[in-house]
Amino acid sequence: MKKNIVIFTLTLFVEVALTIILASLFSVRFIELMFFTGIAFTAFTIWFSSSGGAMTRHIDSQTSAMTGIMMKREEFTLSPNYAVFASVTFLAIGLIFFVLLVTNIIPPA
């Protein structure tokens, strides 16, 4: 349990740090960029937490074409872990801030 909390916290820390760096590079506020980096982080963690899918089918097809051996197809499975949960949490918080920015509840800079 303690390891999972460390993974969750470390993932959030890395995502916040990278978003702060990107916000300073693009000269925008952290909360303006948070939703979009949240989408990227969530896609990245889901990509590496899943198995099967389009890329696996492509590689299997290439291997079958080169060797002539039919490979068993691997179905797409998502294995959610605490890094994925942290990325989805970051995305959800970013979505809330994005909606507040678009509706002018949080004033523009």
UniProtKB/TrEMBL annotation:
Classification of source organism: Bacteria, Bacillati, Bacillota, Bacilli, Bacillales
Record-given protein name: DUF3899 domain-containing protein
Keyword Transmembrane: yes
Ranges that cross the membrane: 6-26, 33-50, 82-106
Entry superkingdom: Bacteria
UniProt entry keywords in alphabetical sequence: Membrane, Transmembrane, Transmembrane helix
